[in-house]
Design goal:
The protein is α/β, with parallel strands linked by helices. The chain has helices at about 15-30, 55-65, 75-80, 85-95, 110, 120-125, 140-155, 170-175, 195-200, 210-220, 225-245, 250-255, 260-265, 270-285, 290-295, 310-320, 330-335, 340-355, 365-375, and strands at about 5-10, 35-40, 70-75, 100-105, 130-135, 155-160. The chain has 19 helices and 6 strands. The longest helix is centred in the middle third of the chain and has 21 residues, at about 225-245. It binds fe (ii) ion (FE2) (2 copies).
Amino acid sequence: MNAKIGVFGGSFDPVHIGHLMLAEHMLEAGGLDKVIFMPTYIQPFKQDNQTASSENRLQMLRLATSDNARFEVSDVELRRASVSYTIDSLRELQQEYPQDNIYFIVGVDIFRLIRKWYKFEELVSEFSFLVGVRPGYDISEVSELITDIQRDFQTDIRLIENPLIDIASSNIRNRMKLGFLAGADSVQYELPASVYDYIYAHGIYEGTTLINQLRIDLSHRVSQRRYEHVLRVEELSVRLSMIFGENVVRTRLAAVAHDICKDKDEEGNALLHSKHAEKMLRDMYGVMDEDVLNAVSFHTTGRAAMSRLEMIIFLADAIEPGREYPVVHKIRLATYESLEAGMKATLEDMDAYLSRKGLELSGDTAAALAYYNDI
Ligand SMILES: [Fe+2]
Ligand SMILES: [Fe+2]
């Protein structure tokens, strides 16, 4: 039997829950067998630092659709790397699915102008259409247009009322510009979790976000050597967060911030820089996330019963690739086994190091060793 395939074009910058809901709705209401998401090429002159690259838009779509066997992603328009006529893209897809019927999914505002589209007559002769209308839209005019086209070309065109969704990619991008901890974190509920993590892991739409700002400020505040250490801590902690299931954004933020007061405080008490960094993050950057603040605050001393994020920052700081001391290899292996095992190994090493100097662990660190020795 010939399958019915919906083709859903758009910039998907980024793909969000509304796109997925609409595609699912078209599947059901239009009786489709599958929906192919087809990201459109964006002209370089229309791109700016809030626009994701073709590769990233494609990757976000793949992540967003990977758990639905009836959703697919096509890169036909991106591959061509120039703005495409709909008919050319649909014909190319038709070659991949020669037996199947292709339905182009299109909003009513664009469909209304279909007589002006490139090769209009061939388009409506070769392909079918699912026209989405907003609830409450006056369909009299477009119904007439559809009747005319159906009479002249025998085109299969169906009007389908869209579900009510008020999510826009542009709005998501704009709110991300503000930085997620400044109140824009609500975007996370408008995106599939995998897409949300991908955006932060790759710094997409990051233009002026908090993390970017911190990285810039850091580069002015600390030595080049320290700056490179922080970037290595950032990279490693993000990797650990992916392995152990921590939020990538919070991890990245804590990692970038952890040594922001380091060089200025080096003369005095070496432990103070973590407390100063926490205060600065809270007072100057408006960070309110207690877990992030604690991860920064306890990255030097550790403490009993640390959160996952606290352990990740503490350990990434101790074992980033630039660190070389006798047992670092052993601690790295322990960390990949579990964060708790990594904590135990690190604290034991700190303890051994101090005893060789005739000193003892104190305060939070002593409590941490007792705690992690026990579990
Ligand atoms: Fe530090
Ligand atoms: Fe550090």
